[in-house]
Design a protein that fits this description.
Alpha-Beta Plaits; 2 domains; 5 helices; 24% strand; binds iron/sulfur cluster
Length: 165
């Protein structure tokens, strides 16, 4: 069981910010402290942060994943980021759009996954298919960026949805 990020949003200080949009190591109250200076956006070497709703920084994994370099944390002068939190509460989940599930060879997500959380299981008469080891997945989004089918969703496991998002 899991909760799709697309269905989750939070109301804070009159603003609704979707959980999937928040920068790493932030929670739903980050708009209270963020002064929308854009320093974290400018500092991000992966360009995964952008100016989103209301001018607040948001994250997207369209072209790259987060490398956890902490540059956004380093340049921010406000109490927005908290490194004692988990960076992201979501985990990767392979949907049925996956090429390998349709018996077409593809392992791009595995190649992009630094902690080796995506493993391909061989099966007789079928190309190997991906499985995500949730304990190893950091939610970095690198697999989302490379998947040619947009087959990877980021999902908050049930029981974690109020912990860090
Ligand atoms: S940790 Fe690094 S890569 Fe991730 S959002 Fe912050 S600046 Fe960008
Ligand atoms: S990159 Fe996408 S299509 Fe390819 S195996 Fe991974 S989830 Fe499937
Ligand atoms: S989100 Fe990052 S750590 Fe998790 S499976 Fe994808 S690439 Fe690997």
């Amino acid at each position: 069981m899991s909760v799709s990020l697309a269905r989750r949003s939070f109301l804070r200080g009159g603003r609704t910010l979707s959980a999937e949009h928040r920068p790493p190591w932030t929670d739903e109250s980050f708009t209270d402290a963020c002064v929308r200076c854009g320093d974290c956006i400018d500092a991000c070497p992966e360009d995964v942060l952008f100016r989103g709703d209301g001018g607040f920084p948001q994250i997207r994994f369209q072209d790259d994943g987060c490398t956890f370099c902490e540059e956004c944390v380093r340049v921010c002068k406000e109490p927005v980021f908290d490194l004692t939190r988990e960076a992201f509460s979501w985990r990767a989940q392979v949907s049925d759009h996956c090429l390998a599930l349709a018996n077409i060879h593809c392992q791009s997500c595995q190649d992009a996954c630094e902690p080796d959380a995506i493993r391909f299981a061989p099966s007789p008469g079928h190309v190997p298919t991906p499985h995500v080891a949730l304990d190893d997945c950091t939610g970095c989004g690198a697999c989302v960026a490379v998947c040619p089918q947009e087959a990877i969703e980021l999902v908050v496991p049930v029981g974690k949805e109020t912990d860090h998002v």
